[in-house]
Design a protein that fits this description.
The complex is a heterotrimer of chains A (about 350), B (about 400) and C (about 190). Chain B has about 400 residues and is an alpha+beta fold. Chain B is about 45% helix and about 10% strand. In chain B, the strands form 3 sheets. In chain B, strands 1-2-3 form a 3-stranded antiparallel beta sheet. A 3-stranded antiparallel beta sheet of chain B has the order 6-7-8. In chain B, about 50% of the residues are buried. In chain C, the strands form 2 sheets. In chain C, strands 1-2-5-4-3 form a 5-stranded mixed beta sheet. Chain C has a two-stranded parallel ribbon with strand order 6-7. The chains are: A mainly alpha (about 350), B alpha+beta (about 400), C alpha/beta (about 190).
Chain lengths: ~350, ~400, ~190
């Protein structure tokens, strides 16, 4: 907590000098959570807007144009509309679980934000097992989907929930294994230390030695967030929105927020583990010292935005995988590749 | 002591439709699923049944033509041309050469438009969203040309018995020529996105295999049959309009799967383009409508009396006509519309109204083929199969 | 499909059918456009269709259409079921018309020869009431399952105001509308 600008900023605000007491720490933590949540939720809202714009332009059309200048206020219009929609419960649904499922999904997505360092000194918590924490929470997020699919009392939603749960579980293994190479090279699970470890090499990014790991991680990220080409659970033309087909209004928007937040988290993980986080590679900063003046958040944000753009790009371009190919890819292709990556990395690290 | 109980599982019955984004209209498929595999598929149609055949019995020949555009509403001119052709054969009406070429030209334009809808729907069901929008952008060009020609974009009612409603002018022909210059490159745009895409190949190769004998036995026609390698194209077998005066090839498939039917239809794009260019070049001068043909103001006439009852056959069986009954003439005429073979069976009693109009539509047969095709495939493949047989419910239900 | 010696047109095919089934064939008519129709009795329709399908010189392998026609009052017998078949090697169409009298409204199904005859025979049953023997699943196809009456018969009206005798599904929808009218938001 010592060099965390969020907390030190709040202590100065609250007028505390010296060692903060327990109450002050709690209040500061809550304020930090509010700041991070507001920032991320605004990003999520505009991620929906930019998806429509970017995919629209790729398909030779304009996307939202009416609400505000070039449609910039569209997320607020969507939010207001969903807020006022009628709260429908399908006949025969299990009401408690039905109500709980979207909250659970969103809780899983937002809790992962606690450990992500947006740049060197801006985070809510810095725990020593950052990567493990994120995997644990995203594993727990699977429950939200199963609960949604089952409690809707609809065959389509049920099918979608089952498919999605199977997909998520399969690709979690591959994702975890792909990051083991990064852990070996950096020697730590702490996200800040991973970024600092990347700075010790001249190329500055684990992308270059760990390209295989990055490939497996990228494909698993698409599968974990249910995005095309793995968007089978919410395939519009097959199951009409899959596990959240029966949801409407605010509950539906919670699922939507959870999906885009997961996208942002996957992008942030990829940026931190493979792209050097908020830093530039040393060979660039040595060549152009002026780049050191640019605050780290600019690089972090730029890299995350680029990742999200690639998510949209792939959605506009590729068709959808069939269920058995999806499973085959996850178990028979990605896991062996990740294991090979681990073995090769360990050998090289041992010899070096 | 362990007591074992038999584990029984039930099949999950899912009803896809009638309101569903992928079923191309109001079709209901009742699927029995064993996990992800389809065990039984029962199509349920009739949601769009409007009674066209009964309505036609109360209208005169020219008026009943308006009903036929509503059959396959994606390719209206083709249905109407088929109708006019059948009636012209029945009533013995001559069609001027220029009108024949114009009809051929517009039928091929509408073949391109209908195949664009097929491609868009097929691609977006499998997940490639962008192909849908690129293809629809090009369909706008064709619909604008139709609007220039006859004022309507979708349901044209352009042919008439004995020709076409209005002549083409040079502006329309220039626009059409420009379109045919641009179109081959646009086809390549769609192909770049999906043709060699590994996911597309995985979703379409080896799915929905129908051998040639099975296809003929089931009564499939059009690109679905030609994808199985059977060279059945009515434009070549029994040419009508100006099809014997233009050169084109009929693409055939080898592997009888969804991918081959997709390739057949993509090749048909190019062949239609070629036919349109030849029609524009070879368009003869002359009338666009036979002035002696029955027009819209045709009134129903009296019943035509038959010849006196023929003598009984040699072994004493009486002839099967009622004394002084009407003379019925009949005809079956088939044309090649984008979806397959569209056949009209008419019985006429001389009053100027069809006594019986029976329409043989390709979509009706193709949906019945779905019953057999969908058994043993995954749910995702059902979507690919519906896309590949290219159905339109207006045609199926009439 | 092997090589054939003579190029057989529809007229020759009709003659071949007549020579094989002389007692069943009532009439051969030729009409415009070179089309030939053969009017037959319905008793041996399955054997005749099998002959047309299997005979090596005929090979009418493709069934284009099965349809029904109602000649109420104008012709006896009242109904006819037409089969339009096509031969790929000869490129010829042939129309076979089987006469079905009103008091014996049934005919053999040709589903064992052509699998695709399934739905077409169901449609014939739905529209005219002609029963097809040995059809595995003969029920209504275009009309709702509980519809009464056969729409394409000549004594079935095109338009009629039936009041309470309307189809039950329609009456249910109207009743639902009446019940939910009080929740209408707009005032009229």
């Amino acid at each position: 907590m010592d060099n965390n600008i969020l907390y030190s900023g709040f202590y100065k605000l609250l007028g505390i000098t010296g060692e903060p007491g327990a109450l002050a720490m709690t209040v500061a933590a809550l304020l930090a959570i509010v700041v991070v949540l507001v920032a991320v939720l605004l990003h999520v809202a505009y991620a929906t807007y930019f998806e429509r714009k970017v995919i629209g332009h790729m398909q030779m059309r304009l996307g939202p144009m009416r609400v505000g200048w070039h449609g910039l206020l569209q997320p607020f219009a969507d939010g207001l509309k969903l807020f006022f929609k009628e709260d429908i419960f399908p006949a025969g649904c299990y009401k408690t679980v039905f109500r709980l499922a979207p909250i659970y999904s969103l809780f899983a997505a937002l809790s992962s934000l606690a450990v992500i360092p947006f740049f060197g000194t801006f985070y809510i918590a810095n725990i020593n097992v950052g990567i493990l924490y994120i995997f644990a929470i995203s594993g727990v997020g699977t429950y939200g989907i199963i609960m949604a699919g089952w409690s809707s009392n609809s065959k389509y939603a049920f099918l979608g929930g089952m498919r999605s749960a199977a997909q998520l579980i399969s690709y979690e293994v591959a994702m975890g294994l792909s990051l083991v190479g990064v852990m070996i090279m950096s020697g730590s699970l702490n996200l800040i230390e991973i970024v600092e470890a990347q700075q010790t090499h001249w190329y500055g990014m684990y992308l270059i030695p760990q390209f295989l790991g990055f490939f497996v991680f990228a494909v698993s990220a698409f599968a974990e967030t249910n995005r095309t080409p793995f968007c089978l659970p919410e395939a519009e033309s097959e199951l009409v929105a899959g596990y959240f087909a029966e949801y409407s209004g605010m509950r539906f928007s919670l699922f939507f927020l959870a999906e885009y937040t997961a996208m942002i988290i996957m992008s942030s993980m990829s940026v931190i583990c493979f792209f050097g986080g908020w830093t530039l590679p040393p060979f660039l900063t040595d060549a152009i010292p002026a780049l050191n003046m640019v605050p780290g958040v600019v690089w972090f944000a730029g890299k995350v935005y680029f990742h999200i753009f690639v998510f949209y790009w792939v959605r506009a371009t590729l068709p959808r995988y069939r269920y058995d190919y999806l499973m085959r890819l996850g178990w028979k292709v990605l896991i062996p590749l990740a294991l090979v990556n681990i073995v090769v990395t360990s050998i090289i690290k041992y010899l070096a | 002591m362990i007591i074992e109980k038999e584990l029984t599982t039930k099949y999950l019955t899912v009803s896809m439709g009638p309101q569903h984004p992928a079923t191309h209209g109001v079709l209901r498929l009742v699927l029995e699923l064993d996990g992800e595999t389809v065990v039984k598929c029962t199509p349920d149609i009739g949601y769009l049944h409007r009674g066209l055949e009964k309505l036609a019995e109360n209208k005169t020949w020219p008026a009943a033509m308006t009903l036929t555009s509503r059959l396959d509403y994606c390719s209206a001119v083709a249905n109407e041309s088929g109708y006019c052709l059948a009636v012209e054969k029945l009533l013995g009406v001559e069609v001027p050469e220029r009108a024949k070429f114009i009809r051929t030209m517009t039928c091929e334009m509408v073949r391109i438009a209908s195949h664009i809808i097929w491609l868009s729907a097929h691609a977006i069901d499998i997940g490639a969203m962008t192909v849908f929008l690129y293809a629809m952008r090009d369909r706008e060009l064709i619909l604008d040309l139709f609007e220039m020609l006859c004022g309507a974009r979708l349901l044209h009612i352009y042919p008439r018995i004995g020709g076409v409603r209005c002549d083409v002018d040079q502006k329309f022909l220039d626009g059409l020529w420009d379109f045919t210059e641009k179109f081959p490159k646009l086809i390549e745009e769609y192909e770049t996105l999906i043709d060699q895409n590994r996911i597309w190949l995985q979703r379409t190769k080896g799915i929905g295999i129908v051998s040639a004998e099975e296809a003929i036995n089931m009564g499939l026609t059009g690109p679905v049959l030609r994808g199985s390698g059977v060279p059945y194209d009515i434009r070549k077998i029994a040419p009508y309009d100006a099809y014997d005066k233009v050169e084109f090839e009929v693409p055939l498939g080898k592997n009888c799967d969804v991918y081959d039917r997709y390739r057949c239809r993509m090749e048909e794009f190019r062949q239609s383009n070629k036919i349109i260019r030849q029609c524009i070049e070879k368009l003869p001068d002359g009338l666009a409508l036979n002035p002696d043909a029955p027009g819209l103001d045709m009134m129903p006439g009296p019943l035509k009396k038959a010849a006196p009852a023929p003598a009984p056959a040699a072994d004493g069986t009486p002839a099967s006509k009622v004394e002084d009954g009407p003379a019925f003439t009949e005809i079956y005429s088939a044309t090649e519309v984008p979806k397959g073979e569209l056949g009209y069976y008419f019985v006429s009693d001389g009053t100027g109204k069809p006594y019986r109009m029976k329409v043989r539509t390709p979509s009706f047969i193709h949906i019945s083929a779905l019953q057999r095709l969908c058994v043993g495939v995954l749910v995702a493949d059902v979507i690919a199969l519906i896309g590949t047989v290219d159905i339109v419910l207006g045609e199926c239900d009439r | 499909m092997g090589r054939l010696e003579i190029d057989m047109g529809p007229k020759e095919a009709a003659e071949a059918l007549k020579s094989s089934f002389a007692s069943e064939v009532r009439e051969i008519a030729e009409f415009k456009g070179g089309q030939v129709s053969v009017t037959v009795a319905k008793a041996k329709i399955r054997e005749m269709m099998r002959f047309l399908h299997d005979a090596p010189e005929l090979q009418f392998q493709f069934l284009s259409e099965i349809g029904g026609v109602d000649y109420m009052g104008k012709k006896e017998p009242r109904y006819e079921v037409i089969y339009v078949v096509f031969s790929m090697p000869h490129k010829a169409y042939l129309t076979v018309k089987a006469q079905v009298p009103e008091d014996d409204l049934a005919i053999d199904s040709v589903m064992d020869i052509w699998v695709g005859a399934d739905w077409r025979e169901r449609e014939c049953f739905d529209m005219f009431g002609i029963k097809f023997n040995d059809h595995p699943d003969l029920r209504r196809i275009l009309m709702p399952d509980d519809w009464e009456g056969f729409p394409l018969r000549k004594d079935y009206p095109l338009q009629a105001d039936l009041g309470d005798r309307e189809w039950k599904g329609y009456l249910d929808v109207v009743a639902l509308y009446e019940r939910n009218k009080k929740y209408e938001v707009h005032s009229r």
